[in-house]
Design a protein that fits this description.
By secondary structure, the chain is mainly α. The chain folds into four domains: 62 residues, no CATH class; 88 residues, no CATH class; 96 residues, Non-ribosomal Peptide Synthetase Peptidyl Carrier Protein, Chain A, CATH 1.10.1200; 58 residues, no CATH class. It has 15 helices and two strands. A two-stranded antiparallel sheet has the order 1-2. A hairpin with a 4-residue loop joins strand 1 and strand 2. Pfam families: Retrotrans_gag. This is Retrotransposon gag domain-containing protein. It comes from Sesamum latifolium.
């Protein structure tokens, strides 16, 4: 019996279970390593599905948490235990896949996805057009509205257009500014309309929806609508009407002629030289041109500069001599008896004069006709005023001694302009 017991003892004895940290954990078997290798393609497929779903729905995606093997159990598992298969979620079910929280999303991923979302919105805007509320009542087409406004876009600093001035001048100013800012076709249309006021703005608001598909179309409609406000183009013949006035310095005549020549775009050098020569008074410069004519206007200007300097030097010399004579005359005591002039009329005022009533002060009327070049200066006009002998100043004579309201010469000149139909 003891022999049978001793013989059965080796068969009944099992290796003891070791519990506690004293024993080394058993190593995984070859079957466990094989299960992990089979599981890797499945996990990679799940990660790809997570990224695909997140990109399709604009959900920020981060790398999934690192898979760590579960802690070793204190109790040894059976080596022949089968591993449960990892379930793979279907492709279309987003809520079955746990997503990271906002605090776990890296900032660079958020910025990248926001940029992608904005790009998708821009593509949708170009394909489907502007929203209905933006297209309502706007004369621009969807193509014009699709151009995105730059962040640094600024309205050009040009004058507003109300429909009363030349449309070509306003359009030229805007196109130069648009060239500087590099506006696209759509931006040109939308910025150009911001320069409209009053009648121009009312005309634009009455245009039908979708009437403007490009800036070229907008340009043509604008010029056609306000064609009546265009300035009349002056011809070369208008330059022959510009003539030097009596007692007008050569410098002032040249300035008036140049201003008139700027309005004649097709004027040639020969025509301008001929017109300027015919408008000259019979003076030193006219005699010089008669002796030695010039065919080019530029050559004429070079010769005119010499005579302008001569006239200014002569005028300055006359002014100096006049001041000296005046000083000597003031220092010499007068032998004539003094006459009481308290009851006399102001100087240069005509007795019983009858003038056409003016609707504005005479000073304002003088400024208006002076700017138009209609005033004929009196013979006593001075380039440089003399030493003040009174607080009153007459701009018509450019001298002190009386006010413009008292000037008989100015009143006669204004009356002459009225009778000739200039006022």
């Amino acid at each position: 019996m003891s022999g049978s017991a001793s013989a059965a003892l080796p068969q009944a004895s099992l290796p003891p279970r070791v519990i506690g940290p004293a024993a080394d954990p058993p190593c995984r078997s070859t079957s466990s390593d094989t299960s992990m290798e089979e599981l890797s393609p499945t996990l990679l497929g799940a990660i790809r599905q997570i990224v695909a779903v997140a990109l399709r729905e604009h959900v920020p995606v981060v790398a999934p948490p690192r898979l760590t093997p579960p802690p070793e159990a204190n109790v040894l598992e059976e080596e022949d235990e089968e591993k449960a298969p990892v379930p793979v979620p279907p492709a279309g079910r987003r809520h079955d896949i746990p997503l990271p929280g906002p605090q776990e999303v890296p900032p660079q991923w958020l910025a990248r996805l926001e940029h992608l979302q904005k790009g998708l919105q821009d593509v949708k805007y170009q394909i489907e057009g502007a929203p209905e509320d933006e297209r309502k009542g706007v004369p621009f087409t969807e193509t014009v509205m699709a151009d995105e406004l730059p962040l640094n876009c600024r309205t050009p600093a040009i004058a507003e257009y109300d429909g009363t001035t030349d449309p070509r001048e306003h359009l030229s100013c805007f196109e130069n500014a648009a060239l500087l800012h590099r506006y696209t076709n759509g931006i040109k249309c939308r910025v150009f309309v911001t320069t409209f006021v009053r009648a121009a703005q009312q005309w634009f608001n009455q245009l039908p929806v979708g009437a403007i598909g490009s800036f070229q179309e907008f340009r043509s409609l604008f010029l056609h609508q306000f064609a009546s406000s265009r300035k009349l183009q002056k011809t070369e013949l208008s330059l022959f009407d510009v003539r030097q006035k009596d007692d007008e310095p050569l410098k002032e005549y040249l300035q008036r002629f140049n201003a008139a020549a700027l309005e004649v775009h097709a004027a040639t050098q020969e025509v301008k030289a001929s017109a300027f020569s015919q408008g000259l008074l019979d003076g030193d410069f006219f005699k010089s041109l008669a002796k030695k004519p010039v065919s080019k206007f530029d050559a004429l200007l070079a010769r005119a500069a010499k005579y302008i300097n001569m006239e200014e030097a002569q005028a300055a010399k006359k002014g100096t001599r006049g001041e000296k004579r005046k000083e000597i005359k003031d220092e010499t005591p007068s032998k004539k008896p003094r006459i009481d002039t308290r009851d006399r009329k102001p100087p240069f005022q005509r007795v019983n004069a009858v003038y056409t009533p003016l609707t504005v002060p005479i000073t304002q009327a003088f400024i208006a006709v002076e700017e138009k070049g209609l005033v004929t200066r009196p013979r006593s006009w001075r380039d440089t005023p003399q030493r003040p002998k009174s607080d009153k100043f007459c701009r018509f004579h450019n001298d002190y001694g009386h006010a413009m309201e008292e000037c008989r010469h100015l009143k006669n000149e204004i009356e002459r302009l009225i009778q000739n139909g200039y006022l």
